[in-house]
Design goal:
This protein is of the alpha+beta class and 116 residues long. The chain is built from 2 helices and 2 strands; from the N terminus they run H-H-E-E. Helix 1 packs antiparallel against helix 2.
Length: 116
Amino acid sequence: MRIHREGYQTIIIVFLFVAAILLTFNHIFPDQTWFHLILYALGLWFFIMIVRFFRSPARNLNGGENIISCPADGKIVVIEKTFEPEYFKDERIQVSIFMSARNVHVNWFPVSGMIK
């Protein structure tokens, strides 16, 4: 599993933040209790969720020239006609994809081509 290059700084900051909280809690309350175990589990879970957010898996697209792939993980929530006033100044079809925290937050090109 690869990590997106923009995620390394956030991952390091979150690791240091979680470690600081756990070490401070252990310093204030040195006797290990069940609450310590819950706090360790929550810290580990939070750190794993942050790492998962920035993962960038390799995609194997077996599409042909006339195939459109999904540009992002998630669930399509809306497909509707909308007016795009900035570039095209015309009516276009908008596809909205909801990505939860468990989805890969990387966008891919859904079709091949050249941007002019």
